[in-house]
Amino acid sequence: MQVNVPLREPFYPKAGEEVVYEQDVKIIRDDHSHYALPPAEILELREHLRTAGRVVVVVGQQAASPGLAAALDEFAAARQAAVVADVISNLSDVRRTVQRQDIFLAGLPKAQQAALQPDLLITFGQSLISKSLKLFLRDAAPSQHWHLQASGEAADTFRRLTRIIRVQPATFFQQLLVLKTADYNGSGGSNPSFSAVADETAPSNVPSGAAAWQRADAEAASFLARFFSASGQPFNEFSAFNYALAALPEHTALHLANSMAVRYANILGLPAGRQIEVFANRGTSGIDGCTSTAVGAALAQPERPVVLLTGDVAFFYDRNAFWHNYPTPNLRVVLFNNHGGGIFRIIDGPRQQPELDEFFETTQALTAENLCRDFSLRYFPVSSFDELNAALPVFFAAESGAAVLEIFTDSKTNAAFFEEYRAAVKQAFS
Fold first, then answer.
1. How far apart are CA 40 and CA 144, in angstroms?
2. pTM of the model
3. What interhelical angle do 39-51 and 169-178 show, nearest 10?
4. N or C: which end of the chain has fewer CB within 10 A?
């Protein structure tokens, strides 16, 4: 039995740390739900946009939507707004999207983060992965935070929420771009006309926040390239994950298991221009069902490649996902097997506990070889960079059928290498 209990952070306070929770009462404006925003409300929102200063749009998990991506891109260009999105937002191919915030926000000192602070924060979508982004936005204290959500409860993730705008995000961005305010007299007696007047939303005397975000994003991309090209790296799952992402076929439905799989992907980002759609079972962040979700997707979409990137605990927890009688020739599973819950050697808190080895990491000795034999899946075991590079093209070949690529690594080596990465980030951005 698994029991999920929501708890506030910090889970593991440092010795002597005083934990204080905000007790202030604040008022969050919750607008009426609309199919489309009324003209008067659009005028009000546009007026706020004119005077808001730096505008940052943060996108959480959502399904891929080309129409939304196009509207958001146009809005960002017109308002010189920064768009910051996790890998599960499915906005990786939008040209202005900042994607490597997990890297530079973990390294930039507080003083240098000031150039990134928004005056107006606009959010939509579901949960975020990046803890660095969450902490930054809580500290940034924007004067206004609008959350776009057509219906349902809205979480105050950053503790700065001031207004819930009840409309679909695509509609919001489209309408704020096309309403010509000069044609609306504010009395409610005339019908507004519509045309492309995007430049009306951009103030002339306010610095753009987008440039600072995009500059930091570009520096983070350069840092990643340098870091992973360094010679003499031990075989480890972070580097192996980087190789696997780079080899993904076009139009892949990419499923990311929880724990380190989804976090590695959020740090590394997706290969550009391949139209990869991302799925992840977030919410309570449990590992249950990640494999079943991917198998179900392969059955439902036989015409496209479905790839699951997963750790060993999540994979073996849900091994009965393969217990069915239907072919899944488009399914590929990349299994990172470090023989335990390796994330607990990486995240602060558990790794400092004396019970780490026995009660957190949950060491296990399984491999996928018997499972692959039982369910007629091709099996590719690798334990070196040479073996991995040789296996990837064959493993992902469209004509070769369902397969598991099992990448064996050492948990302690993985933790040490990730610490090297963390230290390199701080050095590069300080």
1. 19
2. 0.86
3. 80
4. N
